[in-house]
Amino acid sequence: MDRLDGFIKKHVASPMRASGFSKKGRVFRFANLRNDHLFMELERHSVDPEKCVFDVHFWIVPLSHWEFVNRQYVKSSAPDISGALVTFSVIPPTRFAYEPEDDGPFRSRWAFADPQEDSCGEELARRLEYTFIPQMMRLLDREALLREILPNPNGELVRLRNAVTSEIMLRIDDAPIESVQALVDKAEMGGEFLPLIQWARQRLARRSSNAPQ
Question: In terms of pTM, does the model score above 0.90?
């Protein structure tokens, strides 16, 4: 068994499954009642023969964004990471960081040699269970996510779309129709991606036709 796969089985699978995630390979999946998805992925990097080096990423995939990305299909498949609107990296403590002095993206890489495996696994499991799983589950609430990502698109939560697209995706199914229509009109005047405008208007039209009279 690969070192990372053994590490996941021993240390990571239990807290993830206890929180309702299912597992496929190195990816864990959780879906809420509206089918918005949260993924957690462990990504291996073959950069050091002496250590197991990997990243831990969360990905938030609102169903609205997934359906926009897959709008050309009559029926899209189940959401996956390719439809993420936001991502988040779990940064390791210094003692388990592969490049602890790095100021850039490589600071996110976890690493352990064989004698450190259990202590690294226990630390990651603890952080997932008590900090990051509850934090990320809370952000499956679209309003909560919107409040987090609009003011600071390049903070710990990294927004993968611009502010206008992100706001449309997170408000289109719940906010008052008139307010979202105004947002879409403003986006169109600002030269926003035309297929987004067309898709948003169609989705709002369906909402309007299904609204109680």
Answer: yes
